[in-house]
Structure to design on (566 residues):
């Protein structure tokens, strides 16, 4: 078997991944409050600053106030950020700096278990930031329907996709500095192209086509209607794209991490 | 059943063969040492045996379980002390043991039952609530050893267990390892400290360039590969004396830097000659494992 087919062998997962997830949760619990505040600060600043500051000057967007429009975008972008940070900076610390993964793999836990635990953990953390932003948005009267609760599974799936994408970068990264490229080349463009701050149909045609392939576009397309008491049009398509991103990115991340660590 | 056997193992990286046909068999309850210079393939051998990398060819079995195919099941019965410290820096001493025990599928209650005795064993009973960052190097190594024992393993892998420790800390680790042997555990360790190997190991395999080049008990190795007496001669005039007299009074001599090692079965005549020359400094000692090691692997620096 050539090494490429070996690295791309299907994931072999076991329930032992739960213990790795619990380890990360246990560390998080020690720093829960500063971590939550950190997760909230960024989206809040954008939401209040742009929402109220810019929103005053703008007409309604799709029948809602600009700040309500922006709140949905912020739920998605903070999900993306939080999952990416967790999978990259924290994941890299555990893989490379602290060698936590090495220690775990000396026990009856495999790399496949470790990696699924990391992806699910990144999604869990992003779910927490998603919930935090959603709670604030609700308190501000920007999400008024029970349908908004359906945004949470979408947030988790979005977190899984971005967590897995982040793990690909982690597997390739020689150092923390490397992550900057990914943020500049991938995350920042998505912030601007995927409908977080303004409807994507304001963009030139070519950029709209490009944006249609980006995962954040599909997260926004689901969360925004849900927060506005509407069942999202094209529900199945958007969910499928996110699911496909999560699965494909996880498989690639696993292959690259196997190549990096199991030599 | 043998705790670990490896047969005809081979492993290459990018065309360079780092494990070039290795056979190993550990006996229950023994301490087996893998000795070799840096880059000899010791750590790779460990990784192969633990199923963390696949051999290109050959067969490994731990407690009768085939590795890597059943590596997960095999690792459930094994403890590992890695060369590089990888304790969890975010946790206390006790939490490190708790979290590690969970990876073995142990219940929190079962782990809590085992922790006091393990902390006692590691001499860390009073530090259970301390952060890892507050521990000395020796304490960390002892905690890593305690962590490796959380699942009550029958076989313990130790990769250079005392590298970087001060003499007191090393002696404490050795004493603990002897305790484990007395309990009937099997130990598989790598080291490049010859005194460590001589003190602890029942049997040794000396590795170089991916091969086992000699094996046996420390005494057997010394008996088979080296003359029993050594005189080290050093300082001014040593070289001239070796060339003029010393070389003919011993069976073999080797020069490293400004020291010449003279090996012989009957060292009397050489010592007599040296006693008449107060200007030369020398040291007479029995041959040890280091002499064997240097003879077999050469005196060149390995980086």
């Amino acid at each position: 078997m050539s090494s490429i087919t070996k690295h791309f062998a299907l994931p072999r997962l076991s329930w032992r991944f739960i213990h790795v997830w619990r380890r990360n949760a246990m560390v998080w619990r020690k720093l829960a409050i500063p971590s939550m505040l950190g997760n909230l600060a960024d989206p809040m600043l954008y939401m209040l600053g742009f929402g109220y500051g810019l929103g005053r000057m703008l007409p309604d967007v799709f029948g809602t106030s600009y700040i309500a429009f922006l709140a949905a975008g912020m739920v998605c972008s903070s999900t993306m950020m939080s999952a990416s940070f967790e999978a990259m900076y924290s994941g890299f610390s555990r893989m490379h700096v602290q060698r936590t993964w090495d220690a775990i793999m000396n026990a009856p836990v495999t790399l496949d278990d470790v990696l699924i635990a990391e992806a699910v953990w990144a999604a869990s953390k992003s779910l927490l930031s998603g919930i935090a932003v959603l709670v604030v948005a609700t308190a501000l009267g920007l999400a008024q329907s029970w349908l908004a609760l359906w945004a949470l599974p979408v947030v988790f799936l979005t977190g899984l996709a971005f967590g897995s994408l982040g793990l690909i970068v982690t597997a390739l990264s020689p150092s923390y500095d490397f992550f900057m490229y990914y943020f500049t080349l991938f995350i920042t463009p998505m912030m601007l192209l995927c409908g977080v701050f303004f409807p994507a149909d304001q963009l030139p045609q070519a950029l709209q086509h490009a944006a249609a392939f980006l995962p954040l576009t599909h997260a926004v397309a689901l969360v925004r209607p849900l927060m506005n008491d509407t069942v999202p049009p094209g529900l199945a398509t958007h969910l499928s794209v996110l699911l496909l991103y999560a699965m494909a990115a996880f498989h690639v991340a696993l292959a690259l991490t196997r190549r990096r660590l199991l030599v | 059943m043998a705790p670990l056997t490896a047969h005809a193992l081979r492993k290459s990286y990018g065309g360079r063969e780092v494990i070039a046909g290795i056979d190993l068999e550990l006996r229950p309850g023994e301490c087996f040492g893998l000795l070799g210079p840096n880059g000899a393939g010791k750590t790779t051998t460990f990784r192969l045996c633990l199923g963390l990398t696949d051999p290109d060819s050959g067969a490994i079995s731990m407690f009768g379980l085939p590795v890597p195919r059943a590596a997960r099941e095999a690792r459930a019965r094994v403890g590992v002390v890695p060369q590089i410290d990888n304790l969890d820096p975010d946790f206390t001493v006790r939490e490190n043991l708790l979290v590690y025990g969970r990876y073995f599928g142990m219940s929190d209650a079962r782990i809590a039952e085992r922790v006091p005795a393990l902390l006692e064993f590691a001499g860390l009973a009073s530090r259970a609530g301390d952060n890892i960052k507050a521990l000395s190097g020796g304490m960390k190594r002892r905690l890593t050893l305690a962590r490796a024992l959380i699942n009550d393993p029958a076989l313990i892998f130790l990769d250079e267990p005392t590298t970087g420790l001060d003499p007191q800390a090393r002696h404490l680790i050795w004493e603990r390892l002897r305790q484990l042997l007395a309990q009937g555990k099997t130990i598989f360790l790598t080291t490049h400290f010859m005194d460590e190997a001589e003190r602890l190991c029942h049997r040794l395999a000396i590795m170089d360039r991916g091969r086992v080049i000699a094996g046996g008990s420390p005494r057997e190795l010394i008996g088979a590969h080296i003359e029993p007496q050594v005189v080290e001669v050093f300082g001014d005039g040593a070289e001239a004396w070796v060339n003029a007299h010393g070389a003919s009074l011993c069976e073999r001599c080797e020069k490293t830097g400004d020291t010449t090692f003279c090996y012989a079965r009957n060292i009397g005549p050489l010592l007599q000659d040296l006693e008449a020359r107060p200007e030369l400094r020398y040291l007479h000692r029995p041959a040890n494992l280091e002499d064997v090691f240097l003879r077999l692997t050469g005196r060149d620096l390995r980086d």
Observations:
- Chain A has one domain: 3-261.
- The two ends of chain A are 15 Å apart (CA to CA).
